[in-house]
TrEMBL record:
Substrate binds at residues 276, 312, 316, 345, 372. Homodimer. Its cofactor is pyridoxal 5'-phosphate. The lineage of its organism: Bacteria, Pseudomonadati, Pseudomonadota, Gammaproteobacteria, Moraxellales. One of its GO terms (molecular function) is pyridoxal phosphate binding. Gene3D superfamilies: Alanine racemase (3.20.20.10), Lyase, Ornithine Decarboxylase, Chain A, domain 1 (2.40.37.10). The keyword Amino-acid biosynthesis applies. This is Diaminopimelate decarboxylase.
Length: 416
């Protein structure tokens, strides 16, 4: 997976050797390929060309404003979950009229800002949220376009932390309650029921849960129509997985081929909210081996990236590929390495038992790091966050500088 290619015994991202990028920008470093981002976005856009649609990139997957700008230039909309993400979309030149606002704890201030900007839709996740949105809209003398996020009780067959469409999950409203909730929406007076929304989980590797969920949502659209509530759009959420190791996820074209026959005759506009499937394979985390540490039990490679830079392995036990930037020939012995960071936690690893030929000073590339990578990073152990760079052909642009310790200290103050 990923857009890396090996030339002259050195991994390149597009046309640039990772060794040069490390020398120029330092490590740890997030690198994104513009061409891959664009190709992944366009794969969704083209797959749904036969129906009116809007691809809304899930900003939570990668919220760098230059990344969002690359997608906005292609006509992307955005799925946001906070006022902060909304400001990022604006800073990136995104069109608020193509924004859908998901998330189950929207504040009044977030609702107000989104209403003033005229976003496409609020994906509402509870009845209490409906009341709050109605009150904010009434105060502003506006009407809020609403889509109810229904929970279809479908098992996404993914990691339990990232499954969202089961009855026991906190997301959405039980689909059986939808008719009553839409009636209430109409009665409240300042809400326009425009759509229905469903997102069942992330990193799905088969199409069956998507089609099961879609069937349930379409049946509900028919029930609502019989009740006099005619919806204009369906939001099918995100969740399409990528290959990290040996998964064989459907492509956007496979996904569309399963869903489109059910959608085509309906005249509904189709919104979708892919995050991972657009940005994961476009990104790499570049890191350097600080030390090799053989012990009686294990061989450790201690690298300059850590769980604060990329938390997926520690949080979900996620497997991410780790590849040498300049592979060694046989004179360096292959050993089974645990690839660990400098953070004081046993859970601080990026990979375990990886057969690699390593020397101190080597560069390693962690692939698939363009989604839920930098965005989930933290300052744990007072580590400044990595820089982010976009590679475009033979050009590289630093789009976020590395945080210094001075940056971090500047946010705090002593008691008087
Ligand atoms: C409401 C919603 N939409 C879209 C996404 C994006 O998901 P993914 O990155 O799996 O496509 C998520 C995250 O799972 C989400 O919660
Ligand atoms: N952060 C998760 C996915 C969560 C999706 C957000 N709803 C991951 O890295 O896989």
């Amino acid at each position: 997976m990923s857009t890396l290619n090996l030339r002259n015994n050195t991994l390149h991202l597009e046309q640039l050797p990772l060794t040069d990028l490390a020398a120029r920008f330092g490590t740890p470093l997030y690198l994104y390929s513009r061409a891959t981002l664009e190709a992944n976005y366009l794969a969704f856009d083209r797959a749904f060309a036969d129906v009116p649609h809007q691809v809304c990139f899930a900003v939570k997957a990668n919220s760098n404003i230059a990344v969002l700008n690359v997608l906005a230039r292609l006509g992307a909309g955005f799925d946001i979950v906070s006022g902060g993400e909304l400001e990022r979309v604006l800073a990136a030149g995104g069109d608020p009229a193509k924004v859908v606002f998901s998330g189950l704890g929207k504040s009044e201030a977030e609702m107000q800002r989104a209403l003033e900007l005229g976003i496409a839709c609020f994906n509402v996740e509870s009845e209490a949220e409906l009341d709050r949105l109605n009150a904010v809209a009434a105060r502003l003398g506006k009407r809020a376009p609403v889509s109810l996020r229904v929970n279809p009780d479908v098992d996404a067959q993914t990691h339990p932390y990232i499954s969202t469409g089961l009855k026991e999950n906190k997301f959405g409203v039980d689909i059986e309650r939808a008719p009553a909730v839409y009636r209430r929406m109409v009665e409240l007076g300042h809400l326009d029921p425009v759509g229905i929304d469903c997102h069942i989980g992330s990193q799905l590797t088969t199409t069956t849960p998507f089609s099961d969920a879609l069937d349930r949502v379409l049946a509900m659209i028919d029930r609502l129509a019989a009740d006099g509530i005619a919806l204009h759009h369906i939001d099918i959420g995100g969740g399409l997985g990528v290959r990290y190791r040996d998964e064989t996820p459907p492509t956007p074209a496979d996904y569309a081929a399963v869903l489109l026959p059910r959608l085509q005759a309906r005249g509904l506009k189709v919104y979708m909210e892919p995050g991972r499937a657009i940005s994961a394979t476009a990104g790499v985390l570049l890191t350097r081996v600080e030390f090799l540490k053989p012990t009686e039990h294990k061989d450790f490679a201690i690298i300059d990236a850590a769980m604060n830079d990329l938390i997926r392995p520690a949080l979900y036990d996620a497997w991410m590929d780790i590849v040498p930037v300049t592979p060694h020939s046989d004179d360096t012995p292959e050993r089974s390495y645990d690839i660990v960071g400098p953070v004081c936690e046993t859970g601080d690893f990026l990979g375990k038992q990886r057969p690699l030929r390593l020397r101190a000073g080597d560069l390693l590339a962690v692939t698939g790091a363009g989604a839920y990578g930098f965005v989930m990073s933290s300052n744990y152990n007072t580590r400044g966050r990595a820089a982010e760079v976009i590679v475009d052909g033979d050009q590289a642009w630093q789009v976020r500088r590395r945080e210094t310790v001075a940056d971090l200290l500047a946010l705090e103050s002593l008691l008087p």
